[in-house]
């Protein structure tokens, strides 16, 4: 098929944030809210960004990326 593009996507949905416990109540699950949730999301975003940077650096050169950016 000339001109067609196949795109694969993966979705993820988080219905709730649950903590595996607290120092004073290990193993007791409870909701994760506010600052703690923001810290965890930030940590995960940094992890994914770092992994993506490593994959790109290992497989693509600056010239390759410039060609892709140029359309």
What this model shows, in words?
A hairpin with a 2-residue loop joins strand 1 and strand 2. The mean pLDDT is 79. The two termini are 20 Å apart. The chain is α+β, with helices and mostly antiparallel strands and 71 residues long. A two-stranded antiparallel sheet has the order 1-2. It has a domain of 38 residues.
Topology diagram in text:
Blueprint (H helix, E strand, L loop, with lengths): L17 E5 L2 E7 L2 H26 L2 H8 L2
Antiparallel strand pairs: 1-2
Give short descriptive properties of this protein.
elongated; 71 residues; two-stranded antiparallel sheet; alpha+beta; 2 strands
Order of adjacent strands in the largest pleated sheet: 1-2
Q: Per DSSP, what share of the residues sits in E-state strands of 2 or more residues?
A: 15-25%
Shape: elongated
Q: Helix fraction?
A: 40-55%
């Amino acid at each position: 098929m000339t001109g067609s593009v196949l795109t694969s996507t993966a979705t993820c949905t988080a219905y709730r944030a649950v903590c595996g416990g607290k120092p004073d109540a290990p193993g007791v699950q409870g909701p994760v809210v506010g600052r703690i949730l923001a810290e965890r999301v930030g940590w995960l975003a940094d992890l994914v960004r770092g992994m993506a940077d490593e994959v790109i650096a290992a497989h693509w050169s600056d010239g390759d990326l410039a060609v892709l950016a140029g359309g």
